[in-house]
Write a structure and sequence with these properties.
Layout: H1 2-15, H2 30-48, H3 54-71, H4 76-87, H5 90-129
Helix pairs in contact: 1-4, 2-3, 2-5
């Protein structure tokens, strides 16, 4: 699924030029689309660790994307239509991805700050369990 979304994004970005500034009906607003794309990339990252057979990607991926779309109160058609629209607006899309990268970096940094603390707690617990 990730490959298809990426391919759609890249092809759309290169093939379409800037359009008008008016957003058509049914397009997800920019701020909400930025949040949605951030979550889509997080789902994609989780999918990376799953065995890469077509069946497992379809089973796990479809459920995760459906749950994500349900949480944002949209469907896959509206997502694809919105992604296609923003792909035709490269300046706007670049600003969105700058924000997405900033959000993902913030999330990654917060996880990295927590991880060493968790590791040190485990190390202390293991040391206490060892007989002296």
């Amino acid at each position: 699924m990730y490959k298809y979304i990426t391919a759609l994004f890249l092809v759309s970005l290169f093939l379409f030029s800037c359009g008008g500034n008016n957003t058509p009906d049914g397009i997800i607003e920019q701020k909400r689309m930025t949040s949605l794309l951030t979550e889509v990339h997080l789902v994609d990252g989780r999918m990376y660790g799953i065995m890469q057979s077509q069946d497992s990607i379809n089973i796990y991926g479809t459920k995760r994307y459906d749950a994500l779309f349900k949480r944002f109160n949209i469907d896959s058609v509206q997502f694809k239509r919105s992604l296609k629209y923003y792909a035709m607006q490269p300046v706007q899309l670049q600003k969105m991805y700058d924000e997405i990268l900033k959000d993902l970096k913030t999330k990654s940094d917060s996880i990295n700050k927590i991880q060493p603390k968790t590791d040190s707690v485990k190390r202390i617990q293991l040391q206490k369990q060892k007989p002296s």
